[in-house]
Design goal:
The complex is a heterodimer of chains A (122) and B (209). With 122 residues, chain A is mainly alpha-helical. Chain A has five helices and no strands. Helix content of chain B is 46%, strand content 16%. Classes of the chains: A mainly alpha (122), B alpha/beta (209). Chains A and B meet through helix 2, helix 3 and helix 4 of A and helix 5 of B.
Chain lengths: 122, 209
Amino acid sequence: MAYRHIDPSRLLATVGGDVAGYRQLAGIYLATTPALHDQLQQALAAGDCPRAARICHTLKTSVVLVGAHEFGDVLRALERFAQEGEQAVLPLACAEVARLFALVEDEVRLSAGEQAGNEVGN
Amino acid sequence: MAADEVCTTQKAAELLGISVSSVQQLVEAGVIEAWKTKGGHRRIPLAAVHAYKAAPQNGMARAAAPAAVTMPDAHAPVSVLVIEDNAMQRALFERQLAQWDLPIAVRFCENGYQALIEIARSHPDILLADIVMEGIDGYEVIKTIFGYPELADMNIAIVSSLEPDALQQRGGVPDGVVFFPKPVNFDELRGYVRACCAQTVRKRQRRMA
């Protein structure tokens, strides 16, 4: 399958090509990022700059690991706005963050299944 | 004490910006004063919470006051403490460090509070610290370590994806601390930890001589 929002080769390279390692880390992504995303949505909607900056930073670490470059760039920009106290900008980003989060999450889930298939095939 | 002068563990956690379990740890460690109701619920004086928040250095100092630690055998595993709030990054650290074939014993902390308690308990030889974390951040942990001469030998590295200018705004990389950007180049980090291991063994041998 062609991925548009993540680059599975990025995470696979990080774990040295180990499919089990890929699935473990993809599983952690799927288990931990929804709560971070919920917290980020609350912080953005409230224009809470310090909280938004911190959560963008933490979520960005996971997003970059799965090779979600576009989402990573959005979080990086938002983190910067939040660090500079651009409170008014934050609520405007809610919808785009939700859209990208859902697209990336779907592809991470798909890729974990695909890697499992590759493991069985091997 | 009037009801409006005390708060629950949950409220204290909100006021301090840390988890409920971190507050419980601080209470259990005697860092923050508290008592229990007949029903077994903790009650914390608001004054104690505000004093802790207003004087984090004092609070941390008490939490991190280093205990006397027995000098390990020269060839005992070198202790590494990783502070990282991102679960995925922690799993990656755990996986990589286990594959390095180095004489290390690794422990993980999810936040600065846990880290200060662990540092006070075990005096790790090497600290790999994330910076941006809820509550006490990596800088505050490092600043606290610098306040104790008995922790001066600790090898400290910052591992962070902070942009260079954001890092500078926070005071840059302290003297004597090494910086590794994220995504982590684990080959470089292995080289650093390997060198720290060799230095730690030499240091122990000198002390035992």
